[in-house]
Amino acid sequence: MSALLKVTNLSLEFCTRSGAVRALDSVGFEAREGEILGLVGESGCGKTATAHAILGLLGASARVTSGSAEFLGRDLLRLKPAELDSIRGRDAAIVFQSASAALNPVRSVGAQIADVVARHTPAPASVVREKALDAMRAMRIADPERRSRAFPHELSGGMRQRVGIAIALACTPRLLIADEPTTGLDVTTQAAVMDLIHAMTRERGLGVVLITHDLALASRTCDRIVVMHAGQIVETAPREGFFTGPRHPYSVGLLRSAPANAASLDDLKPIEGVAPDLSRADLPHCRFSERCARRAAVCDAGPLPREAIGPDHIVSCWRPM
Amino acid sequence: MRERNASNLAALGLPALLLLCALLGPWIAPYDPNASNAAIALQPPSAAHWFGADQLGRDILSRVIVATRLDLVIAFSAVALSGVVGSVVGAAIGYFRGFADGAVSRLADVLMAFPLFALAMASVAAFGNSVANVIVVTAIVNLPFYIRLARAETNIRRDVGYVEAARVGGSSHGRILFVFLLPNILSPLVVQASINLGWAVLNAAGLSFIGLGVRAPTPEWGVMVSDGAQFISSGQWWVALFPGLALMLAALGFNLLGDALRDIVDIRSRW
Amino acid sequence: MRFVLRRCLGAPPTLAGVLVVAFLITHWLPGDPAVLFASNPSADAGAIAAIHEKLGLDLPLWRQFLIYVGAVAHGDLGQSVVTGQPVARDLARLLPASLELTLSAFALAIGLALPLGVAAALRPGSLINHLCRLVSTAAAALPTFVTGLVLIAVFYVLLGVAPEPIGRLDAFAVAPPAITGFLTIDALLARDPSAFVMAAAHLALPALTMALFALAPLARTIRAAMIGALNADFIAAARANGLAWRTVVFTYAFRNAMLPVVTTLGMTFSYMLGANVLVEKVFAWPGVGSYALDALIGLDYAPVQGFMLLMAAIFVAVNLLVDIVYGLVDPRAGFEADA
User: Fold this and answer.
1) For C180, what's the count of Cα atoms within 13 Å in the CB-facing half-sphere?
2) Which of C234, C325, C336 has the most A C-beta neighbours within 10 Å, making it the best mutation to test the interface with A?
3) Largest Cα span, chain C
């Protein structure tokens, strides 16, 4: 399973009226073919910013201050908009959190899928239309001919999400970034959506980066886990290794605070404190240190280490557990 | 930023200048606005008469300055009338809802169907050609906007905490309306009113241009433009143009003021 | 279809209200109403008494109202003293002139406002944006009659490129055979290029005057709608799917932005209809506005009433049309109405 996307040392700032917000600090991870990589962390830790940075979707106020995102032999961060346009939607695609917001309300869903197909694989209209219907069938959408004429508001939330994924996968990309694709969906639909993504991974060798704050979901579906906190990657591990033996204090805290792991309410242990304000000029090297019970002098000494403590298991901590 | 400052300056400066002319008109005018002097009839702008003289030899600058008062009075009265009546009615129906709401909204729809000039012409025919009539008609045509605005704003605030508390506390409906709701919907109403002023000034002048409301020899911008229109073909442009310019500056000043106020109240509509 | 019918149902109550207001104002007109409706303005006492009876002027108010509505439904808007013709006929004869003016001005205003608003939305902070802002603020302060006079002063008096503002054609010119009543179209239909040029030349300045007036709110609304559409989430999603910028702007953003613009277009058109009285006076344009104005000055009130009723009716019709178009174009609107 070779590396499909290699993000190295990615740092990002947002320029705001109250100063620079250093949203990402030396973020690095690898997404591989045929594998689902879970990118987990609290809300606001920078997961979506990372995804947007990789695909060039950031606004004008964002500045990438260092790093690279290698994909199919090219650095996505250094490409010109036109070059990026030809990759997006075709080789690398993204599914947004809220499909309702991601779909054009006044255009039929079939037309929206066809637009993307036509953009990347110019062909006569009938061929394009057939490909759009195929994309819908792959998403197990029943009666695609009729459904393709529907408008987004006429479909249920789950159906809209399937359409969103259909658009993303219509041109058979190599990499899919799924940003919280199951938020707001009921459990059955969640399962169905994840099954689809899983099937794509197995059948087509699709590499997936699944962004989520739901640890339970990650434990069921992801092959490897990457944990983020306040714009920094703190731990990377295979699923088994992570859930049985997390080594970073933050990861340990996360697992301990998950309701599924607790026998009763009293067992729930929240992580103390809050993530630091990223617009501060005096951010510590380890952004978790101010909340960490294991903090020591060495933690303030220098930039975070990347210690390999097992097969494919890397921790960014001076004093792992 | 520089032009934001320039437009803010104009937003304050122009209306201030106009108010000054309106208040002090007769005293700051260089000549008697009604004094005719056949000897200087239709003289172009000169050092003695900055805006030139009209066909009766009256100084145009003086007439323009003095006319400010009348135009502003008409515009302010119309806006104030429609603003006050519209807000109270709108707030009332937004608060009480029910049958009155539907009926008044329908009435507002009907009122909106009548273009100002058409309605003004018809009312002048029925009720006589007077300034009061013009003010009332302008106010009536404007009414639906205030009713709608007040109704919407009251609707939003009606079920909010402090209103509920007042109701439970035993305050009468009238008290709730006047003490709690109306003061709180004041700012969007004031913004609407100041934007309206520019429109009202233009319409007051437009109506008198076609002969409704103010008539010659009273100095009023619309009347002056109407008088001077006939001289444009023969090249004496100043008779009609200077009052027209004053009118434009007045409308511009109030529009900018309205925009500036709206910027303060609602950030989203910024340029 | 159901949607269209439902929208149509909303119009009659407003129309009824309009009729009530029109009737009340008619009722309060000075002078004897019977004279308004007499077929011969100098009818004698016996004829007037007969009309009194026919109009039921001794009947209670509400019955007079019904008679009035009946008359209007039959197209009877009274008689003009000045022209000696039925008001309805006069209005029908003169309406094409006003419509030609308003529609040309409208087309011109859209033609200018659309590129300006869209370009300003696509390039925030640029020169175009400042221009759009300037136009929207300054043009809104322009009084129509002053603009008209300035244009005449510049283009006719000073530069001599515009024809004398005495109406739709040069003095003593013969109009092409009237098919639509729109001189420009009639000239084209009659294959008379010189007539077309003349009609268009006379139309130019008044249409420009009215267009400048409508430009401000239109440019402002188009720009705002475009910005709103471009900021929508699905635009970012479309970009993420690699759609070309051009597709995104026109197929996705523009179409969505046009929905609120359609509503503004309706309102602007109605407002222009009302304001054409001023322009028709400045340019001596023989339309319904100047007809009503002349009647008012001549103390001839039936035409004034007829004019007011006509304008209100057109307003209601235009609004209805806008509502229907909006409902047909926006798939969400119909859905909510039927739900």
Assistant:
1) 12
2) C234
3) 84
**Is residue C34's pLDDT more than 60?**
no
CB A114 within 8 A of CB A161: no
Query: Over 60: is that where the pLDDT of B145 sits?
Result: yes
Chains A and B touch (3+ CB pairs under 8 A): no
Which residues have C-beta within 8 Å of that of residue B261, sequence separation ≥ 6? B190, B191, B194
Point out the residue among B107, B109, B122 whose CB comes nearest to the CB of C25: B122
pLDDT band at C164 (very low <50, low <70, confident <90, very high): confident
Interchain proximity B211–C297, CB inside 8 Å: yes
Chain C residue closest in CA terms to B256:
C137
Residue in chain B nearest C120 by alpha carbon: B271
- Average pLDDT rounded to a whole number, residues B42-50: 79
Contact C335 A104 (CB under 8 A): no
More confident: B216 or C53: B216
Burial degree of B221 (CB within 10 A; 0-12, 13-18, 19+): buried
pLDDT for C33 equals: 55
Q: Dump pLDDT digits (tens) for C178-218.
A: 777 787 777 777 788 888 888 888 888 999 999 998 888 88
Alpha-carbon gap, residue C168 to C175, rounded angstroms: 9
Residue B48 tokens read as: 């003695």
Question: Which tens digits make up the pLDDT trace of C270-293?
Answer: 778 778 889 998 888 888 999 988
For A93, the closest of C241, C243, C244 (CB atoms) is C241
Longest dimension (CA), chain A: 67
Query: How many angstroms away from the CA of C30 is the closest CA of chain B?
Result: 6
**Whether C35 contacts chain B with CB within 8 A:** no
Contacts of C133 in chain B (CB under 8 A): 271
Computed over every residue of chain A, the mean pLDDT equals 85
Per-residue pLDDT tens for C99-144? Answer: 889 999 999 999 999 888 888 888 877 788 888 888 888 888 888 8
Q: Which chains does B contact via 3+ CB–CB distances below 8 A?
A: C
Task: Provide mean pLDDT across the span C56-71.
Answer: 73
Per residue, what are the HEC states of A274-314? Answer: CCCCCCCCCCCCCCCHHHCCCCCHHHHCCCCCCEEEECCEE
| Amino acid in the structure at residue C152 | I
Cβ proximity of C179 and C188 under 8 Å: no
Q: Is the pLDDT of residue A304 over 80?
A: yes
Q: Does A103 lie at the interface with C, CB-CB under 8 angstroms?
A: yes
Proportion of chain A above pLDDT 70, given as a percent:
97
- Average pLDDT value over all residues in chain C: 80
Question: Residue A306 above 50 pLDDT?
Answer: yes
Cis peptide before B217 (omega within 30 of 0): yes
The partner residues of A310 in beta bridges, in order of sequence, read A313
Distance from CA of C235 to the nearest CA of A (A): 8
* Cβ neighbours for C104, distance < 8 A, ≥ 6 positions apart: C184, C203, C207
Residues of C in contact with A86 (CB under 8 A): 242
Q: What's the complex ipTM?
A: 0.82
CA–CA separation, B53 and B60 (whole Å): 5
Report chain B residues whose CB lies below 8 A from the CB of C274. Answer: 115-118
Separation in Å, CA of B9 to nearest CA in chain C: 15
Q: Could you give the CA distance from residue B209 to residue B229 in angstroms, rounded to a whole number?
A: 10
Chains touching chain A through at least 3 C-beta pairs below 8 angstroms are C
Distance CA C329, CA C21 (A): 34
Instruction: Residue A89: name the closest of C249, C247, C226, C250 by CA.
Output: C247
Q: What is the mean pLDDT of residues A9-16?
A: 89
Helices (H) and strands (E) in chain B, counts: 11, 0
Q: Is C259 on the interface with A (CB under 8 A)?
A: yes
